[in-house]
Amino acid sequence: MTATPTTGLERRTARGARDSARRPAGLNVIILVMAVACGLTVANLYYAQPLLALIASSFHVSQGTAAIVVTATQLGYAAGLAFLVPLGDVLENRKLACRTLVVTAIALGAAALSPDFTLFLILSVGIGVTSVVVQVLVPFAAHLAPPEQRGKYVGRVMSGLLLGILLARSLASVVAAAWGWRSIYLISAVAMIALSAVLWRLLPQHAPVAKARYGRLLRSTLRLVREEPVLRRRAMAQALMFGAFSAFWTSIAYELIDAHHLSQLHIAVFALVGAGGAAAALVAGKLGDRGLGRPVRGLAIALAVGAMVLAGLGSRSVILLAGAAVLLDLAVQGNQVLSQRDVYALREDARARLNTVYVTSSFLGGSAASAISGWLFQTHGWTAVAIFGAALPLAAGGIYLWELIRPPAPVALGSV
Q: For residue 176, is it within any domain?
């Protein structure tokens, strides 16, 4: 039987069908790479938290002074968000991400070899500034995702980012126990170089359509704050939630060492317990796609308050403290994904700048809370930290209730 010859149109149609069939797998691989990249990079912000006692001893400074390392890194991250991330709306994203990672590697390597606390503090700011590459990749993922599945794909990338946050403390503790606290910075420097090469090879190019001078770009970012009330509310609420998260994790290592006499390896296991919170990103993203963002955000805020109350009660029990860590991580990360999803839906052409406002606010809240919690622990103990941490999500609950009384205009996809 003679085969029927195919026309050019039929061949193009078949090729298009094959390309379409391959596309989801390609997108899944890209999202996986982005998730891993976000996790490895954001971990740089958190390595110091369980190592503060070792850092204080190494540089002969007090525990309260050593806690400034966390604040300095987060302030650096906030500065990077304010001044580097907006470039994601006008520069080719892959090139911006890969070049920034090389600078991150240099800062990490120099920090590992730093002989002086002041220099280490300055380099910590540099690590924070350049680690904002994660906030170039998250809006990039939102751009690549189909609109009806944006919450799912952003949730996947955020789950990688959150795993990086939650596992960083465990990894740093294990590595410090084996080779000293400086070794984690050297290991991460090598990882940043490798990551830059992988991203350059695998990520697609993405050159935004928007064209603007740098000064005008920054001014337009400030204009978004004035023009988008949903952005203001989400940013303020998450700053308070992340403040509670930062207060807990900045001081918990001191509490575990001083009151419960745990070693660095024990602290690593404790920090690993909180990694279950990363699951909140996947679940919250899917619930947001189903229009359940508002009630789930309310639940997340309530969980954060309960977690800090439990933390205060757990001053004599490591088990209660671990339970508080899990609840707090679930709450903060779930609220993060849902709020970020709402923010990305506001303006498709300004996602990097929207992300700048949202995450900068979050890290300013976190850096301030870290500094306050370090002082509170040194002067008044763990209970004071827990009370302070509970007050922050309570304030976020006030914003949430105000929004219920005066609901905003709906954003795209009915996600508010």
A: yes
| Cβ(208)–Cβ(89) below 8 Å | yes
- List the CATH number of the domain containing 376: 1.20.1250.20
Contact (CB, 8 A) for 57 and 176? no
Q: How many CB atoms lie within 10 A of CB 191?
A: 18
* 12 domain residue, yes or no: no
Residues spanned by the domain of 65: 24-414
Return phi, psi of residue 351, to 5°. -65, -40
Q: Cα–Cα distance between 376 and 57 in angstroms, integer?
A: 20
304 touches 396 (CB < 8 A): yes
173 pLDDT exceeds 80?
Answer: yes
**CA 187, 193, 197, 203 torsion: positive or negative?**
positive
* Residue 23 confidence (pLDDT): 41
189, 105 contact by CB (below 8 A): yes
Mean per-residue pLDDT, 200-222: 76
Q: 110 pLDDT exceeds 70?
A: yes
**In this predicted structure, what is the pLDDT of residue 147?**
72
416, 298 Cβ separation under 8 angstroms: no
The number of domains in the chain is 1
Query: Among residues 159, 149, 141, which one has the least CA distance to residue 94?
Result: 141
Taking the C-alpha atoms of residue 280 and residue 52, their distance in angstroms, rounded to an integer, is: 28
Residue 384 identity: A
In a domain, 377, yes or no: yes
In a domain, residue 361? The reply is: yes
Of the chain, the end-to-end C-alpha distance in Å amounts to 61
What is residue 206's DSSP assignment?
Answer: -
Give the separation between CA 255 and CA 241, rounded to whole angstroms. Answer: 21
Whether residue 238 contacts residue 395, with contact meaning beta carbons closer than 8 Å, is answered with no
**Which tokens is 331 given?**
């709450």
Helices (H), 180-292: 183-202, 214-227, 229-258, 264-273, 279-289
Q: Which two tokens stand for residue 95?
A: 């090139």
Chain Cα centroid distance, residue 34: 13
Tokens (6 digits) for 301: 């805020």
* SS3 label, residue 341: helix
Q: Is the pLDDT of residue 10 over 50?
A: no
